[in-house]
Amino acid sequence: MSLIEPRTLKGFRDYLPETMIPRERLMETAREVYRSFGFSPIDTPALEYAEILVGKGGEESDKQLYRFTDHGGRDVALRFDLTVPLARFVAQYHHDLGLPFKRYHIGPVWRGENTQRGRYREFVQCDFDTIGVESVTADIEAVLVVHQLFRALGFERFQIRVNNRKLLNGLLDSLDLAERSAPILRVLDKLPKVGEAKVAEELIGSVGLDGARAKAVIAIASIQGSNAQILSALEPMAHGERGQQGLMDLRAVLEGARAAGVPEACLQLDPSIARGLDYYTGTIFETFLGDLPGIGSVCSGGRYDNLAQLYTKERLPGIGGSLGLDRLLAAMEELKMLPSTRTPVRVMLAYFDAQHLTDYLRLAAQLRGAGIGVEFYPEPKKLGQQLKYADKRGFEYALILGGNEWAAGVCQLKELKTGATRELKIAGPQGELSSELAAALKG
Amino acid sequence: MSLIEPRTLKGFRDYLPETMIPRERLMETAREVYRSFGFSPIDTPALEYAEILVGKGGEESDKQLYRFTDHGGRDVALRFDLTVPLARFVAQYHHDLGLPFKRYHIGPVWRGENTQRGRYREFVQCDFDTIGVESVTADIEAVLVVHQLFRALGFERFQIRVNNRKLLNGLLDSLDLAERSAPILRVLDKLPKVGEAKVAEELIGSVGLDGARAKAVIAIASIQGSNAQILSALEPMAHGERGQQGLMDLRAVLEGARAAGVPEACLQLDPSIARGLDYYTGTIFETFLGDLPGIGSVCSGGRYDNLAQLYTKERLPGIGGSLGLDRLLAAMEELKMLPSTRTPVRVMLAYFDAQHLTDYLRLAAQLRGAGIGVEFYPEPKKLGQQLKYADKRGFEYALILGGNEWAAGVCQLKELKTGATRELKIAGPQGELSSELAAALKG
């Protein structure tokens, strides 16, 4: 029989324990933070009717859809993000759900795009949204969620860059460019990546601005300084109701976040943040890592006026954000923030003496009962081989007991990094796990 | 513009918060239990080359495959279980991984089967396996994992029914039926579902046994009693090396599990457990709920000699099990073991007085900082409306502060079920969260 070559599809990847352990921890942290603000989990199918997904993410997204005909002749496709399924979901259930509705959703999405470094055809999104709320309180909270998320993930140097579409549109009003705001903002969004010259070229060439106004647009997006300085600079330019409303919302977000403990170093007003997507209508934000700004935004989002208009007549405004889990994981790998361990527990119990199998099993059960995870080596092989395995996997401790130890009721606790070994009693007065062993392993 | 009907595909389902909250909790419990035994997480792509999956689960499984041609003209399919991807995975990386390799994998799988009650075309599997271990220690541990899992999930009445393929084959040897063991076991596996008469009919009609031997096979599978009684009854029938080895392994599993604290009520030898799949070669088990045996096994598995033989020449024996998460969730729903809450936190902070927005935000941040999750109602609507929302969502407490409370530095803590309200100080001497409020909400 000829063998089938074990391989994965281009753009797809396997996660081995050393990557999956921190990846799982990231997801757990995200869940904990989202929950602590009252966001509830939901899940939706990987496959949807194609009509639900087609045309919702633009031409590029349609081309990248994994779309096919199922057994029942249905035209189906794999979801390419979690926002379109959310729109379908709230349209379907909003009477049941009640508003405001705050949900998070962590799950894989699929895009058949050209693969480049750090881009995969399957990746996990980690979204949170508040639906049915006009009030800027939800915008403030979105910023607090992102701040808390990065703190909980262990980051100290990161920047949430915030802006407001209403303000941007107000500024464009003042240049008499309101009608061309969508294409202008799409071009402006590339400013940090491609630079001023290229943006000017596109604003003139593709969008059709004259040179003076292209320059003025770029000048606005390039204003720098403290949040207060930028606000002062923008104030006189923000014409009309729209611009003033945007400015007011921005002030509220900055003030609210400060009150809740977000330092200014973590939250900066940035007039160049435009976000490429057309559906944003108010607050928009991106998040950059202080030590690795080059990888781009690792958490982005914004406010929208009408999430589910394609599926329901109900007007559902809201605000949300999306954590780019796999990009963040790649960044943390580069910043050496990930532990190199390949085991989820710290202790390996060596298996030395087959006569005592039931004693080992009982001890392992006692340790787990005390909340101490332990891997029991499954075969009574040579101790050297077991310790080599323990070392390779990255355990901190090996617990060693042979016939003498079982007779004396003690164990050898070996710290694998240093080789230091201590002898400890295994049982307390009532036969329970000894407190000295529990204390040594809980440390 | 005409609306698109928001709907899901037949056989697929959305998970709303009231179902997703306990579903997530089940997955977390499974992860914690798997980890505590030293199993590490892995993940693999949803999509595989079709040649990896086709023919691996039998004819039925091939028919149910979601298979299509991707953008690059590749023949691809969605995985239908997590075992075939595991086989591909260990064949691909086993030099890297090192043996023994213990992994768990929680993820969705897809089967385009006919939908019936409780059967979906997308469902989550929750598997654990130990690869590269011949020793029966790994079999004992598999039983311990399952026992611990159901205890941790809150079950007290459940039965792990265990048997051994070597023993079954030894018993068939004694009837001179060794060569037809695969089809016999496949038929025998249906015994609890279809009854003796039907199984006898199939054994005679399809497999070609004579009536006496069909009766003998069924008689063996029907032996009942305590574990010791069944062992005694089987012992004289288990001919040859195979049968004796199977009997020895079964004894080791029963004895090891007892030593580690598994009561006999939870682990019973059952000669009728055969498992339909051909690849099992030793210990096999299924798990039934004492209060709902009718839904069938909720956690099954067994030992195999050679997991990845289609992808590598390396012989990789192992043992594993699979928790049927969605079936278990349906059972827990039926048994009313699921809380009816639709929020992940217990406390809602009402928003009463817009003048104090930053004060509310600060208090919410303090609560979260103390580990108390809190949802801040995002708009200063009428209190009655906010409390109605809190009630519908299932919060335990509403925290209410208006102008008077802010002035006095107190809050009204309302227990929503009883309506009882207490007045508590919000701040301690240093402006930190007051210990009386923290204590009341941590309860």
Which terms summarize this structure?
eight-stranded mixed sheet, 2 domains, 443 residues, Rossmann fold, 16 strands, BirA Bifunctional Protein, domain 2, 17 helices, 19% strand, homodimer
If you had to describe this structure to a student in words, what would you say it looks like?
Two copies of one chain form a homodimer. Chain A has 443 residues and is an alpha+beta fold. Chain A folds into two domains: 17-334, 2-Layer Sandwich (BirA Bifunctional Protein, domain 2), CATH 3.30.930; 347-442, 3-Layer(aba) Sandwich (Rossmann fold), CATH 3.40.50. The first copy, chain A, is 41% helix and 19% strand. Chain A is built from 17 helices and 16 strands. In chain A, strands 1-5-6-11-10-9-7-8 form an eight-stranded mixed beta sheet. In chain A, strands 13-12-14-15-16 form a five-stranded mixed beta sheet. The first copy, chain A, has a three-stranded antiparallel beta sheet with strand order 2-4-3. In chain A, a hairpin with a 5-residue loop joins strand 15 (410-415) and strand 16. In chain A, helix 5 (137-152) crosses helix 12 (240-259), helix 6 (165-174) packs antiparallel against helix 12 (240-259) and helix 7 runs antiparallel to helix 9 (196-207). Chain A is elongated and about 90 Å long. The mean pLDDT of chain A is 93. At the A-B interface, helix 1, strand 1, strand 2, helix 4 and strand 5 of A face helix 1, strand 1, strand 2, helix 4 and strand 5 of B.
